[in-house]
Amino acid sequence: KAGVTQTPRYLIKTRGQQVTLSCSPISGHRSVSWYQQTPGQGLQFLFEYFSETQRNKGNFPGRFSGRQFSNSRSEMNVSTLELGDSALYLCASSLVGRNTGELFFGEGSRLTVL
Amino acid sequence: GESVGLHLPTLSVQEGDNSIINCAYSNSASDYFIWYKQESGKGPQFIIDIRSNMDKRQGQRVTVLLNKTVKHLSLQIAATQPGDSAVYFCAERGTGGFKTIFGAGTRLFVKA
Asked: What is the pLDDT of residues A72-94, one digit of tens each?
């Protein structure tokens, strides 16, 4: 079974631009979560989607948004990029209803903002 | 707010020794506490979890202990191997499963 796939793996943008990152969860997983990972702040929760609905959101400005499609694939968008948005963005999928806390992570999209 | 913190940022152990990584949490309402391992260039990988109504769970070479009285979580790795070198994160999943909060991470170095 294929794992969580994130695209693109690496990208470079300049301040003020916007970026869209994509995540394909493991087949059958309907919950998708996004995290921002930086050396100084660790893994910060961005948002979680299930059945195309955002169920929870972290403490990030409105420039960070996301969505989930009917096939459970998800995208996140960051508008008006700032230098501080440089980070590894991780997507994780999970099965809902299972008796486990396990998230399955992709390898991330590394964003550099110049 | 909710937070999961780690006591030590770096841990160095000799190959073959046991490792203990500690974590403090603040949200008593979490239903699962989880440990993840992250190797360089990869996403975090699930190691083991423990439900909030348990105090100990064992896996292959790993044991997780949960002390709800002092809000403390630990990961014990038996016979630590060079392949165990990585950053270890503790995490807690809120009731309902919508949100998992991660701690800052502990880097484990295994000396040969």
From this structure: 999 999 999 999 999 999 999 99
Contact A105 B51 (CB under 8 A): no
CA separation, residue A61 to residues A12, A38, A56, A85 (Å): 21, 16, 14, 11
Separation CA B84–CA B100 (nearest Å) = 23
> Is the Cβ of B55 closer than 8 Å to some Cβ of chain A?
no
Q: Do A100 and B32 touch (CB under 8 A)?
A: yes
Model pLDDT for residues A33-69, shown as the tens digit of each residue: 999 999 777 899 999 999 999 999 999 999 999 999 9
Name the β-bridge partners of B91: B34, B102
